[in-house]
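Methods: holo model generation. Sequences were used as deposited, without trimming of termini or removal of tags, and paired with ligand SMILES retrieved from the corresponding compound records. Each pair was processed once, and we did not select among multiple samples. The sequence and 2-acetamido-2-deoxy-beta-D-glucopyranose SMILES for this entry were:
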Amino acid sequence: MKSLLIIIFLLHCLLHTTNSAENSTEVLTKFLANVNQNLATLYNREVLANWQLEVKGPNYLYALLQSELTSEEIMNYVQSIAPKVTKFNRLNIGNPQQQRQLSQIPERGYEALSPADLKLMYIVTKNMGDIYKNTKLCSYHDRKQCNLTLIPSVQHILHNSNDVAEIEYYWLEWRRKTGMPAKQDFMSFVELYRKTAQLNGFPTPSEFWYKDLEENSAQTATLLESFMQRLQPLFQEFHAHVRGKLRKLYGEELIPRGKPYPQNLAEIFIGNAFRRADPEWYIEFPYPEVGMPNITSGLLRRGLNNAQRVFWNVAEYFRSMGMPQIEDTFWSHNARPKADLDEEELRCWHKAWKFYGIKRVNFSYCPLVDEERFFNMYEALADVYYYRAYDQQPTLFAEEPFPNFSDGLGKMFSLSASSPRYLEKLKVLERARVSKELRINRLYWQGLRTIFLIPVFYVLDRYRVDVLDERLNISDNCAYWQLTTDFTGAEPPVSRSNEDFDAPAKLLIEVDDQYTSQIMSTVLQYQLYQHFCEITGQYKPNDENYPLDLCDLSNQRQIGPLVMEAMSLGSSKSYKDILQIMTKESAINMDGLLAYFQPLYEWLVEQNRLDDVEIGWEPTRKCS
Ligand SMILES: *[C@@H]1O[C@H](CO)[C@@H](O)[C@H](O)[C@H]1NC(C)=O
Ligand SMILES: *[C@@H]1O[C@H](CO)[C@@H](O)[C@H](O)[C@H]1NC(C)=O
Ligand SMILES: *[C@@H]1O[C@H](CO)[C@@H](O)[C@H](O)[C@H]1NC(C)=O
Ligand SMILES: *[C@@H]1O[C@H](CO)[C@@H](O)[C@H](O)[C@H]1NC(C)=O
Ligand SMILES: *[C@@H]1O[C@H](CO)[C@@H](O)[C@H](O)[C@H]1NC(C)=O
Ligand SMILES: *[C@@H]1O[C@H](CO)[C@@H](O)[C@H](O)[C@H]1NC(C)=O
Ligand SMILES: *[C@@H]1O[C@H](CO)[C@@H](O)[C@H](O)[C@H]1NC(C)=O
Ligand SMILES: *[C@@H]1O[C@H](CO)[C@@H](O)[C@H](O)[C@H]1NC(C)=O
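and the model returned the structure below.
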């Protein structure tokens, strides 16, 4: 009798749980529908406000207020649903698609901190930014003139100086005035970040740091290490070449053999490749007499002299790859010029604006016509396609699969468009110009902008993650330099110690910006390019008539449907599944990047041999 009762009781429990599970699945379905709708409304309000700021100017107070208010509302909303999200996650119910939607609901992030901690977080991050913005240095030549900001004043001086003492003076002054003053704030930031990670339910701070990358931090670290390893031969040859150039400029005493190069001098050299357009004014090319083609004047010669003409020309390029045609009314209905041109800094770009739950993409354009904005148009139009392709996805899936994924895809298209073969077809480039020398010059310039950044980005993230997870002590300044030297081949120009704090300024003003996704996006760009070029026969490994750097994807109609299918998934699948659709491989790898720069690699090896420059470097002894 007693056991029967127990059985009945157990049965009751069992039935009850199945029922409530069914019910809670229904509840989950309703919850997600609600979240998708509420987020769409809030996001749209925010996008609209930011769009108005772009086309009416940053002084449009109504939009400025609206934008700030809406971000606060979004935070409040995310905060309000957080307990339910936690509960649903614990219940482990719903089908895989619903579980993925749950995982894509934004975290509370810093909002999970107590009000006092949140306020402190705000203060320390603002302090670090202010130190950077407000620090003024005294002029090297006139120590009484003390109004030099890093950007643009000091930057300008450095770009035009070859006085080593002057360059070193600014390097040291800058660190003296910003490093130590920011250290305490940085330590507070680290403490608060650790708390934030814990409050958001992450086992370690680095898991929180890498949360958007779909892999745990150990897997991400392994992936990054594999990138660094594969890049090493190319990086070391390029490093040796740059060190040789620096030695010619500054002499053997400052740039000794077999040692890391001084960071400040190398930064100026490499930084020249990042100056706006007209690279031949700043860079000594492998073949100076060949130089680089002037794309801007080519565009003007072709009559591509306003943004609208450029837009339709680029739209034709996408159509030729089998992407849907953009309707004639798009420009007049959706495009507006950017209001604040900022011509001096040239921070003026084309940009697509997505909305949620409605089929609408706005477009703001920079009215200037030059090489940079020409290639930027390919990236902006790729975004138009991307946003349209996933506009039927629920809000939680109307995103890219990881941050900067869409940048990688967009840059893949602009890379293909920058191929001399395509530019020749467009008649922007004259026929006879595509020589081996021109190709090397182009790869050299691209290489300076690409290959040197990857180790720098790697160190930025590696340093912060190691500090956050307590593998590295903030007071151990020499550990920072060891990472920097090991991976970037650079050392401080003067002796440093653990009494100094040299974490780079970039890290302090954008203290929680994650760089790994930018590395992944760069690697992805070349991987996709190699794959698409190979399946269309535009790149044939070991056939010198079809090298990767000349591959032109225009008119390759099989590309469009593949890309559109991947784009239409938004973030409903992991990036690996999406990569699988496009390339039949699910892992991001360096093959494409290395294949692309192979001719440059060969040139560097030969040139380094001729110049008799040494490869590689010893560990630094400049910090103890
Ligand atoms: C939960 O399931 C029970 C049993 O089937 C049902 O009677 C009840 O109405 C359901 N509740 C909800 C809210 O659907
Ligand atoms: C967000 O929530 C706080 C605290 O509840 C409230 O004071 C504030 O007005 C809310 N902000 C908005 C924009 O709704
Ligand atoms: C998951 O459940 C939702 C809501 O019931 C449904 O719309 C969707 O089609 C389901 N997805 C899969 C893959 O079964
Ligand atoms: C800095 O001060 C000097 C003279 O004191 C002045 O000529 C110069 O224009 C100032 N520079 C800036 C950037 O304010
Ligand atoms: C390229 O052409 C543009 C427009 O004609 C011109 O302004 C620019 O100075 C040229 N650049 C070089 C390096 O000659
Ligand atoms: C931009 O989008 C908003 C919201 O859909 C719309 O009201 C507005 O008219 C659009 N602007 C342009 C220029 O298309
Ligand atoms: C990477 O993504 C972030 C956030 O999505 C964005 O702010 C940043 O500009 C992107 N970086 C690049 C190089 O596109
Ligand atoms: C970091 O180093 C400083 C100075 O050597 C020391 O006082 C502190 O205890 C260290 N912190 C940790 C967490 O090891």
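The beta strands are 261-262, 335-337, 351-354, 361-365, 490-491.
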